[in-house]
Amino acid sequence: MKTIQAEIELQDGGVIALELYPETAPISVENFVKLARDGFYDGVIFHRVVPGFVIQGGDPTGTGMGGPGYQIKGEFRANGVKNDLKHTRGVLSMARAQAYDSAGSQFFIMVEDAPHLDGQYAAFGRVTNGMDVVDKIVEDSQNGVTAEMKTVRIL
């Protein structure tokens, strides 16, 4: 399977290495790559951190309500798209509102397995290195520290 390598570099120097799966979710991957290359994610925080569940970022407003000004098709089973990638620890997926085709720029990384998300959200990659950084984001959030992305690089 073809993959695209990427990495999220945090302001504190932490790096989360990612592998993206364009054959599984081509629209989501293309969108993430474009936004990263355009510098959209530079300086954006992980605005939602839920211990034992997810860390979520990609909103330029930092509120959970922002996005790129457009929406993409949700690539998951409930929306009529084959996507067998399970929401296990380390998986990267597109966040969305209630509407299936409402994803834009926000994404989340699974902190733990969450099978109830399978077929409901567009999983499009996984962490290949740096889950310790993800775990530190969760830990730091408990102390009021918010993780900020310096940049997202497509390698």
UniProtKB/TrEMBL annotation:
Entries under PROSITE patterns matching the protein: CSA_PPIASE_1 (PS00170), CSA_PPIASE_2 (PS50072)
CDD domains xref list: cyclophilin
Listed EC numbers: 5.2.1.8
Record flagged with keyword Metal-binding: no
Keywords (A to Z) from UniProt: Isomerase, Rotamase
Entry keyword Isomerase: yes
Any GO molecular function: peptidyl-prolyl cis-trans isomerase activity
Pfam families: Pro_isomerase
Catalytic activity: [protein]-peptidylproline (omega=180) = [protein]-peptidylproline (omega=0)
Family note: Belongs to the cyclophilin-type PPIase family.
Function: PPIases accelerate the folding of proteins. It catalyzes the cis-trans isomerization of proline imidic peptide bonds in oligopeptides.
Protein name: Peptidyl-prolyl cis-trans isomerase
Species assigned in the record: Candidatus Ventrousia excrementavium
